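Contributing new records

If you add data, match the layout below exactly. Sequence lines come first and carry their own label; structure lines follow with theirs. Keep one chain per record. Anything else will be rejected by the validation script.
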Amino acid sequence: EGLNSIVHYSVIGGNTANHYAVDEDTGEISVVKQLDAETTASYRLVIRAQDRGSPTRSNTTQVQIRVLDVNDHSPKFYSQYFQEAVAENVPLGYSIVRIQAYDGDKGENSRISYTITDTDAVLPFAINDKTGWLSTTELLDREGQSSYQFGVEASDNGAPRRAEKATVIIQVQDRNDNDPVFQRKIYEAGVL
Protein backbone atom coordinates (compact mmCIF):
# COMPACT_ATOMS: atom_id res chain seq x y z
CA GLU A 1 0.00 0.00 0.00
CA GLY A 2 0.99 3.63 -0.28
CA LEU A 3 4.49 4.38 -1.55
CA ASN A 4 5.37 0.70 -1.31
CA SER A 5 2.94 -0.06 -4.16
CA ILE A 6 4.03 2.73 -6.54
CA VAL A 7 6.41 1.25 -9.11
CA HIS A 8 8.55 3.25 -11.52
CA TYR A 9 10.30 1.75 -14.53
CA SER A 10 13.57 2.66 -16.23
CA VAL A 11 15.94 1.31 -18.88
CA ILE A 12 19.29 0.58 -17.26
CA GLY A 13 21.08 -1.35 -20.00
CA GLY A 14 21.17 -2.25 -23.69
CA ASN A 15 19.96 1.13 -24.92
CA THR A 16 23.36 2.59 -25.86
CA ALA A 17 22.03 4.37 -28.96
CA ASN A 18 18.91 5.60 -27.12
CA HIS A 19 16.47 4.00 -29.57
CA TYR A 20 13.97 3.15 -26.84
CA ALA A 21 12.22 4.82 -23.92
CA VAL A 22 10.15 3.32 -21.14
CA ASP A 23 7.20 5.06 -19.57
CA GLU A 24 8.20 5.31 -15.90
CA ASP A 25 4.63 4.86 -14.68
CA THR A 26 3.28 2.13 -16.99
CA GLY A 27 6.46 0.32 -18.09
CA GLU A 28 5.43 0.63 -21.74
CA ILE A 29 8.47 0.54 -24.04
CA SER A 30 8.39 2.75 -27.12
CA VAL A 31 10.70 3.44 -30.06
CA VAL A 32 12.05 7.01 -30.03
CA LYS A 33 14.69 6.82 -32.82
CA GLN A 34 14.58 5.27 -36.30
CA LEU A 35 15.49 1.57 -36.33
CA ASP A 36 17.38 -0.17 -39.14
CA ALA A 37 17.34 -3.97 -39.29
CA GLU A 38 20.39 -3.95 -41.57
CA THR A 39 22.42 -2.17 -38.87
CA THR A 40 21.10 -3.85 -35.72
CA ALA A 41 18.70 -6.78 -35.96
CA SER A 42 18.00 -7.19 -32.23
CA TYR A 43 18.29 -5.41 -28.90
CA ARG A 44 18.38 -6.73 -25.35
CA LEU A 45 17.17 -4.08 -22.92
CA VAL A 46 17.53 -4.33 -19.17
CA ILE A 47 14.47 -2.85 -17.44
CA ARG A 48 14.36 -2.03 -13.75
CA ALA A 49 11.14 -1.80 -11.73
CA GLN A 50 11.61 0.07 -8.43
CA ASP A 51 9.05 0.91 -5.80
CA ARG A 52 8.91 4.16 -3.81
CA GLY A 53 8.91 2.43 -0.42
CA SER A 54 11.40 2.98 2.33
CA PRO A 55 13.74 1.26 1.85
CA THR A 56 13.18 1.00 -1.92
CA ARG A 57 13.02 -2.41 -3.46
CA SER A 58 13.69 -3.22 -7.12
CA ASN A 59 13.97 -5.99 -9.60
CA THR A 60 15.25 -6.22 -13.21
CA THR A 61 14.26 -8.14 -16.28
CA GLN A 62 15.57 -8.41 -19.82
CA VAL A 63 13.47 -7.60 -22.85
CA GLN A 64 14.61 -8.98 -26.20
CA ILE A 65 13.47 -6.92 -29.21
CA ARG A 66 13.86 -8.28 -32.73
CA VAL A 67 13.78 -5.67 -35.52
CA LEU A 68 11.99 -6.93 -38.64
CA ASP A 69 13.33 -5.92 -42.02
CA VAL A 70 11.19 -3.91 -44.41
CA ASN A 71 11.94 -3.55 -48.09
CA ASP A 72 13.51 -0.09 -47.85
CA HIS A 73 16.37 -0.59 -50.35
CA SER A 74 16.17 -1.01 -54.12
CA PRO A 75 18.63 -3.28 -55.90
CA LYS A 76 21.72 -1.42 -57.11
CA PHE A 77 23.89 -2.44 -60.04
CA TYR A 78 27.66 -2.35 -59.64
CA SER A 79 27.64 -0.31 -62.84
CA GLN A 80 24.83 1.33 -64.83
CA TYR A 81 26.46 0.21 -68.10
CA PHE A 82 27.77 -3.24 -68.92
CA GLN A 83 29.74 -3.41 -72.16
CA GLU A 84 31.30 -6.62 -73.40
CA ALA A 85 32.81 -7.94 -76.61
CA VAL A 86 32.19 -11.52 -77.75
CA ALA A 87 33.52 -13.42 -80.75
CA GLU A 88 30.98 -14.39 -83.37
CA ASN A 89 32.09 -18.05 -83.28
CA VAL A 90 31.33 -18.79 -79.61
CA PRO A 91 29.16 -21.88 -78.98
CA LEU A 92 25.53 -21.88 -77.85
CA GLY A 93 25.22 -21.35 -74.10
CA TYR A 94 28.47 -19.36 -73.91
CA SER A 95 28.57 -17.17 -70.78
CA ILE A 96 29.36 -13.63 -71.88
CA VAL A 97 29.13 -11.42 -68.79
CA ARG A 98 27.56 -11.46 -65.35
CA ILE A 99 25.14 -8.58 -64.83
CA GLN A 100 25.18 -8.22 -61.06
CA ALA A 101 23.30 -6.12 -58.52
CA TYR A 102 23.14 -6.04 -54.73
CA ASP A 103 20.40 -5.15 -52.26
CA GLY A 104 20.96 -3.69 -48.79
CA ASP A 105 17.94 -5.47 -47.31
CA LYS A 106 17.90 -8.92 -45.73
CA GLY A 107 16.14 -12.21 -46.49
CA GLU A 108 13.49 -12.24 -49.21
CA ASN A 109 13.72 -8.44 -49.45
CA SER A 110 17.27 -8.86 -50.79
CA ARG A 111 16.72 -11.83 -53.16
CA ILE A 112 17.19 -10.47 -56.69
CA SER A 113 15.75 -11.67 -60.01
CA TYR A 114 17.06 -10.53 -63.40
CA THR A 115 15.14 -10.00 -66.66
CA ILE A 116 16.00 -8.56 -70.08
CA THR A 117 14.03 -5.39 -70.90
CA ASP A 118 13.94 -2.42 -73.27
CA THR A 119 13.97 -4.36 -76.52
CA ASP A 120 11.40 -5.33 -79.11
CA ALA A 121 13.85 -7.51 -81.03
CA VAL A 122 14.36 -11.21 -80.48
CA LEU A 123 17.83 -11.38 -78.95
CA PRO A 124 20.32 -14.24 -79.28
CA PHE A 125 20.87 -13.99 -75.51
CA ALA A 126 19.22 -15.12 -72.29
CA ILE A 127 19.87 -14.08 -68.72
CA ASN A 128 19.84 -16.45 -65.76
CA ASP A 129 17.15 -14.93 -63.54
CA LYS A 130 18.99 -15.93 -60.33
CA THR A 131 22.69 -15.39 -61.12
CA GLY A 132 22.58 -12.62 -63.74
CA TRP A 133 24.83 -14.52 -66.19
CA LEU A 134 24.13 -13.47 -69.78
CA SER A 135 24.68 -16.28 -72.30
CA THR A 136 24.11 -16.99 -75.98
CA THR A 137 20.97 -18.79 -77.16
CA GLU A 138 21.81 -18.62 -80.88
CA LEU A 139 24.96 -18.52 -82.98
CA LEU A 140 26.19 -14.97 -83.47
CA ASP A 141 27.00 -13.52 -86.88
CA ARG A 142 28.79 -10.17 -86.97
CA GLU A 143 27.94 -9.72 -90.62
CA GLY A 144 24.24 -9.99 -89.69
CA GLN A 145 24.42 -7.71 -86.61
CA SER A 146 27.54 -6.25 -85.05
CA SER A 147 26.13 -4.97 -81.76
CA TYR A 148 23.16 -5.25 -79.41
CA GLN A 149 21.87 -2.81 -76.82
CA PHE A 150 19.17 -3.66 -74.28
CA GLY A 151 18.26 -3.25 -70.64
CA VAL A 152 18.43 -5.60 -67.69
CA GLU A 153 16.14 -5.14 -64.70
CA ALA A 154 17.03 -6.35 -61.22
CA SER A 155 13.99 -6.67 -58.97
CA ASP A 156 13.93 -7.81 -55.35
CA ASN A 157 11.43 -10.19 -53.79
CA GLY A 158 10.09 -7.70 -51.24
CA ALA A 159 6.57 -6.41 -50.89
CA PRO A 160 6.19 -4.12 -52.66
CA ARG A 161 8.91 -5.09 -55.11
CA ARG A 162 11.64 -2.60 -55.88
CA ALA A 163 13.63 -2.59 -59.11
CA GLU A 164 16.46 -0.87 -60.97
CA LYS A 165 17.68 -1.06 -64.58
CA ALA A 166 21.08 -1.12 -66.25
CA THR A 167 22.07 -0.88 -69.92
CA VAL A 168 23.93 -3.73 -71.63
CA ILE A 169 25.91 -3.32 -74.86
CA ILE A 170 27.30 -6.42 -76.58
CA GLN A 171 29.78 -5.94 -79.42
CA VAL A 172 30.18 -8.93 -81.75
CA GLN A 173 33.79 -9.36 -82.88
CA ASP A 174 34.51 -10.53 -86.38
CA ARG A 175 36.22 -13.84 -87.08
CA ASN A 176 37.57 -14.97 -90.43
CA ASP A 177 34.60 -17.21 -91.12
CA ASN A 178 33.88 -16.30 -94.76
CA ASP A 179 35.85 -17.48 -97.78
CA PRO A 180 36.70 -14.95 -100.48
CA VAL A 181 34.05 -14.93 -103.19
CA PHE A 182 34.54 -13.88 -106.78
CA GLN A 183 31.88 -11.52 -108.04
CA ARG A 184 31.51 -13.47 -111.27
CA LYS A 185 31.97 -17.11 -112.11
CA ILE A 186 33.95 -16.44 -115.31
CA TYR A 187 36.29 -13.59 -116.15
CA GLU A 188 37.33 -13.07 -119.75
CA ALA A 189 39.98 -10.75 -121.03
CA GLY A 190 41.66 -10.26 -124.32
CA VAL A 191 45.43 -9.77 -124.64
CA LEU A 192 47.11 -8.11 -127.66
